[in-house]
Fold this sequence. Notes:
The structure holds three protein chains of three kinds. By secondary structure, chain A is mainly α. Chain A has two domains: 5-100, no CATH class; 107-182, no CATH class. Chain A is built from eleven helices and no strands. By secondary structure, chain B is of the alpha/beta class. Chain B is globular, with a radius of gyration of 31 Å. The mean pLDDT of chain B is 96. Chain C contains 15 helices and eight strands. Chain C has a four-stranded parallel sheet. In chain C, strands 6-5-7-8 form a four-stranded parallel sheet, sandwiched between helices. In chain C, helix 3 (54-74) packs across helix 5, helix 6 crosses helix 7 (134-140) and helix 11 packs across helix 12 (243-250). The chains are: A mainly alpha, B alpha/beta, C alpha/beta. At the A-B interface, helix 2 of A face strand 24, strand 25 and strand 26 of B.
Amino acid sequence: MPSSPKTFDSEFIAEVQRESEQNLALCYQCGNCTAGCPVSFAYDYPVNQIMRLVQAGRRQEALSSHAIWLCSSCETCTTRCPNDIDVARIMDVLRHMARRDNIVSEKAVGAFWTAFLESVEKHGRVFELGLMANYVGKTGRMFTDVDLAPIALRKGKLGLKAHDIKNLAEIRGIFDRYREQKQ
Amino acid sequence: MNIGVFVCHCGSNIAGTVDTEAVAKTALTFREVVFATDTMYACSEPGQAGIVDAIKTYDLDGVVVASCTPRMHEATFRRTLERAGLNKYMFEMANIREHVSWIGKDKEANTRKAEELVHMAVEKLRRNDYLEAGEFDINKRVMVIGGGVAGIQAALDCADGGLEVILVEREPSIGGKMSKLDKTFPTVDCSSCILGPKMVDVAQHPNITMYTLSEIESVKGFVGNFDVTVRRKAAYVDWDTCTGCGECTTKCPSKKTPDRFNEFIGQTTAINIPFPQAIPKKASINAEACLKLTKDKCGACAKICPTEAIRFDQQDELVNEQVGAIIAATGYDLFDFTKYGEYGGGRYPDVITSMQYERLLSASGPTEGHIKRPSDGAEPKDIVFIQCVGSRDKSIGRPYCSGFCCMYTAKQTILTKDHMPDSQSYVFYMDIRAPGKNYDEFTRRAMEEYGARYIRGRVSAIQPKNGRYLVKGADTLLGEQVEIEADLIVLAVGAEAAKGANELAEKLRISYDPYGFFMEGHPKLKPVETNTAGIYLAGSCQGPKDIPSSVAQGDAAAAKVLALFSKDKLASDPQVSNVKLVRCIGCGKCESVCPFGAIEMIDFRGMPKASVVETVCQGCGVCTAACPQGAIQLSHFTDNQILAEVNTLCL
Amino acid sequence: MSLCYAYYPGCSGLGTSLEYDTSTRALCKDLGIELVEIPDWNCCGSTPAHAVDHLLSACLVGRNLGIADDMAEERELDGIITPCPSCLKNLKTTQHRLADPEFHRKVELIVGRPLKAELPIKSVLQVLVEDLGIQALAKLVQKPLAGLKVVPYYGCIMVRPPQIMQFDDAENPMALDNLLAELGAEVLPFALKTDCCGASLGTTRKDVITKLSGRILDAAEEAGADAIVTACPLCQLNLDMRQSQINKANHSGHQMPVFYYSQLAGLAAGQGEASTMLDKLCVSPRPLLAALAGHTGEGA
């Protein structure tokens, strides 16, 4: 889609800069981030182009990309950027914004994180089996890692019971107050 | 006094946010102001003519111009006053541009502030004295520090102009970085073939004295009268007897000495002549590598030398030279890339710098011009060049562009193809900077005719893999990662200030920027002068630049020196400190705080008193602040003159 | 010098990386480092929390930092330590962000208590290397791991980004290398020592793990290593438990044991299986250890 003043969303750029505390104008598109990104092979847009989409104010394309969900938060981009830009933090912020707008291009990844946080809210500590069951329920991916179940069980690595913390109410309180202030 | 006030519009620069007419009107109400007007451009010919006219018509004996900063036009207006027959120190400027109109848009507040500044200037002028400049002799000899191409050019021009030149160089040979290059862009001239004749000219010129293996120990004095102490380091060889035959190097057993000239790629002997075209062609001993000097063993060179020139007991020698001007042409050094851990941090033998590669390419280098991998000596097939290593990188404190790396990399890809027709060169770049004459055509040639593959993107990491290296880069134009397996990787390292530049600048009392490059007088208009009278700059010490620019600056600095020396005497600035002997109690505080060593304690009728060396005093005023008695005063900025300004504003 | 830290185990220590938690505790005990587990600690939120909202992540971490504040009132603590790099990153990032008074206030409101959060936060590895010094480890060694060729795998966030983690060199860390050398092992240079294994994408995008972790296993084999040594529960899981998945996807035949450094340290110090839990490793290290002189495969 050709870039035109109509598709340049300056509010979007301001929002990303505000939330990430990064100055997008510092990026001179050198491609160092893309060069070092381990998951680039799976991306629809390489990370330097995600940065370019933000610089060009292209909200829709940036937030609906698959790349932002597949980023493994490995911090290689941030560590090596010659302009000291915290690229990993910008990727995080784009994930936050996409999720707030209900744009989740990698449904499984979104579902996994939701299931994870639901497990934390429920037990205080992640209950892996519960998390997996929840994830399968959300995505329908019944055969996820079933091949690992035997060895995991044999080695005692798959707890069958949750490790609830004592002061669960405190955790529930945190989640409730967090959701409240979001409104 | 009859004072005239001229309030400049400076077009709309000042008049846009200051009511200049009102300021002039108000000025008329100030004491002793008999004439005040606003004027369009005070510094222009009609503007200045207007001032001269008013001086004559109204019999003015002092002038205030309210306009731009004195740094801009104080000298201009002082000359105007002289043309009208007035003493040029009966002049004051009120800066109502940089200090008023350029910093705020509130016209009312600006006009008020401008009026106050004019009032202050008038009150100071009322207390100004006639000052007369003195004269002093100049020593018409020049010292050039640095024997690279810029220093060589400056030295030759000065010498051809009839001046005596002392050329000081810290390496054993002159030639600088250019002598290390194989070929030069964009002509692909052999570097030593074009530099060599100039180096020989320097050696043979009757007006030039060369001190190599020498450094500046200290600098005293002032323009026209510098007293420089040069430390001539021990070469452990008598250069008056040494013929440069090189026999000593064939017998020296210490063969694993790190080879500085060859950028530490390859080794040399402890006693060596740095390269075949070295000037002076004399041997010198690396003291740390010499068995005789460290362990009192060997001494083979002394036995074989046909002229018995070896001197193990030689000491450093301090030499004094009196000169009237100094040209700093100390060049640059290359960025230490080991800071980039992702490129191996210096641990990978086949990741080398562009200068090391240049030595490999050179027929007089450690591999006699055969390109060999440092790790196994094999000929590389796939060579990756990485641009901007240590340049344009805020994260390591080098945000600037070094200006010549795009060009030298293109050159190196062309030479690589010439040396090894079956090789493939890759260049990872961000932008190509090729602004000079025939430069862009040259970089295009590398891509279009020599098959170099240019890929737009940086390299994130280099990882060793099965004896070769995996270069992980990006092609941002395609939007892809690019992984290349390379045999050899050449890093286009950027330029940084030469080692020791800061210390030399302190000795010369010139300024340097945050990166250590020496500061020119004005970035646009004074590229080869400094803010210190008598000291000039040439070449990369002022900022990274290519050979034509370095040569041009060498020519320019020489022209400045020749202009300086065109007079027999120089005028001394009367805006210097003076001691009122009757008030001085001889405490010596002023002497201890003077940054220029311009104050000496003398004996006056049996009492210690301070005395100012007028020609050294720079008029900074620190002594006047230190003096507890107010005995030392800075002419044109006396306590009373400054207090008059303060009182005008505050009371 | 006796060191005492508030210990944050992290959720995987209860299940998939039980051997890491156990061997870490045993190692610290032998070294005289006192670990006091943060009572009733909760999950830091790992990647999902910071990928969803930095405020939520900070609050989940904040509760733990608050409990540690209380602990510090009761006794002298040298800091908070954790064996898991992901927990470490969340703890340190939150501490960093709490410096902003506005953010600090928001977090305190949601967590429901005041927070000082001033204790130094480090990884166990960092404490061993910086605060204790690996010479102390050398004193423990009874059965040097002679003949064991290992590659140290730090994982991507143990030392990055350098401004937050402030430990070792971000491009070529040597802490693990030096520690393993001190144990008597032959440590091979490993160019991929900080390359990402694929992290938490295993469940949702197995192809990423098989590619990235597969690459690490390939490189380890090419280097001639007998085993990989890690300091991260997720890396260990991807390389070890998923090794069969990797082999299937890449048609490779890796049988490379993946140790936690604390297990090897315990082994060299002569600790028993109850401490080192070597049998928890999915790819069994027993054949390798049996082949090395001076070690007999202990019964499961």
